[in-house]
Amino acid sequence: MDENTTYQVLLNDEGQYSLWPAGKEVPAGWHPDGTRGTRQECMDHVDEVWTDMRPRSLRERMSAR
Predict the structure, then answer these.
(1) What is the distance between the alpha carbons of residues 27 and 50, in angstroms, rounded to a whole number?
(2) Which GO terms describe its cellular component (predicted)?
(3) What is the pLDDT along the chain (65 residues), one digit of tens a residue?
(4) Which of 1, 5, 10, 37 is buried most, with the most CB atoms less than 10 Å from its CB?
(5) What's the pLDDT at 52?
(6) CATH code assigned to 7-61
(7) Domains of the chain: which residue ranges?
(8) Region for 37 from its dihedrals, namely left if φ exceeds 0, alpha if ψ lies in -120 to 50, beta otherwise
(9) What is the pLDDT of residue 9?
(10) Alpha carbon of 34 to those of 22, 37, 45, 59: distances in Å?
(11) pTM
(12) Residue 13 contacts residue 29 (beta carbons within 8 Å)
């Protein structure tokens, strides 16, 4: 992908994030979180919001102890 590609941030049910080229079909199990921009803008957003890299199911199991 080149510098002119617009990306979107995707989120899955486990609370994991991914960058995806805007305009491409979103893979099953993922949905846009509403953030679009350059790769760097999207990476900055993910760095800000994804503070715990553990999958949601693991976080829930660990907090139930």
Answers:
(1) 20
(2) cytosol
(3) 567 899 999 999 999 999 999 999 999 999 999 999 999 999 999 999 998 777 777 777 778 77
(4) 10
(5) 79
(6) 3.90.820.10
(7) 7-61
(8) left
(9) 98
(10) 11, 10, 11, 24
(11) 0.81
(12) yes
Among 59, 55, 39, which residue's Cα sits nearest to residue 47? 39
Structural tokens at position 20: 């995806």
Place of tokens 């693991």: 58
The sign one gets for the Cα dihedral 41, 43, 46, 51 is: negative
Which residue is it, tokens 């080229």? 21
SS3 string of 4-49? CCCEEEEEECCCCEEEEECCCCCCCCEEEEEEEECHHHHHHHHHHH
* Distance, CA of 19 to CA of 36 (rounded, Å): 9
Q: Whole-angstrom Cα distance, residue 50 to residue 19?
A: 13
